[in-house]
Write a sequence for this structure.
């Protein structure tokens, strides 16, 4: 069992997500999924997905990725521990196959799914990546694919953390837990679980610049400006592991 402080932050993080989803909008989330920045990541992992076999998005939120992939013909279902997000999603699209549940105790049988998708989820648990990754491994069939994105401690993030330290602020929020993983630690966690790595890809460089604010942000929901997009393209080409906001991991459960 987690320590009391960890358990409390686990609950407070879930409540924070409930608040976030209450204030969000499915249509706006869909617009983000269809953006150039998101599509760059999606198109990188799409060739690894099987259209015919069941795929889970674990931590699906307002289900924008589930909706988009189902529009493309993929057999995707969603799961989240913030149940209000599922209700909002099904109010938008009643036919969505959604399940309330915890990614650390998935309501699926061993070797039952062909794909496990996790986008910016596992970094929100203070006990680390391993419990969630072990559940992903358990429910995936041999040959099944893990698609995972995790925030990267890029140069801008490190400078922001240094600034917080100088000002005497806490590096970890009391109510909303979030962490980052460098490439080595992320790959090591994935391989420790038993997965075989296919690719580790630095992504979302323009969003790193969005975090600087001002001229890097465009009007709208987390939209990057033309300046941020151009800098992101340059950073991806010349310094891919210095300015990426997310790392995309593609790995497989070995065949039996």
């Amino acid at each position: 069992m987690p320590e009391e402080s960890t358990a409390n932050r686990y609950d407070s993080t879930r409540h924070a997500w409930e608040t976030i989803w209450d204030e969000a909008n499915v249509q706006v989330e869909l617009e983000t999924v269809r953006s150039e920045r998101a599509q760059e990541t999606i198109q990188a992992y799409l060739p690894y997905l099987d259209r015919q076999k069941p795929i889970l998005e674990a931590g699906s939120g307002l289900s924008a990725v589930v909706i988009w992939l189902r529009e493309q013909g993929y057999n995707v279902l969603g799961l989240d521990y913030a149940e209000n997000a599922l209700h909002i999603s099904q109010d938008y699209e009643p036919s969505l196959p959604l399940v309330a549940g915890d990614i650390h105790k998935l309501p699926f049988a061993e070797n039952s799914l062909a794909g496990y998708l996790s986008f910016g989820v596992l970094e929100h648990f203070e006990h680390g990546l391993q419990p969630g990754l072990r559940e992903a491994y358990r429910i995936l069939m041999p040959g099944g694919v893990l698609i995972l994105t995790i925030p990267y401690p890029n140069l801008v993030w490190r400078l922001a953390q240094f600034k917080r330290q100088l000002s005497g602020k806490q590096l970890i929020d009391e109510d909303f837990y979030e962490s980052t993983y460098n490439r080595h630690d992320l790959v090591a966690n994935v391989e420790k679980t038993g997965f075989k790595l296919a690719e580790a890809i630095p992504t979302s460089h323009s969003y790193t610049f969005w975090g600087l604010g001002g001229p890097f942000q465009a009007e709208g929901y987390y939209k990057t400006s033309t300046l941020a997009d151009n800098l992101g393209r340059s950073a991806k080409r010349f310094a891919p592991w210095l300015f990426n906001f997310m790392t995309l991991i593609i790995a497989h459960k070995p065949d039996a």
In short: The mean pLDDT is 91. The CA atoms of residues 49 and 131 lie 23 Å apart. The first helix runs from residue 4 to 22. The first strand starts at residue 55 and ends at 58.
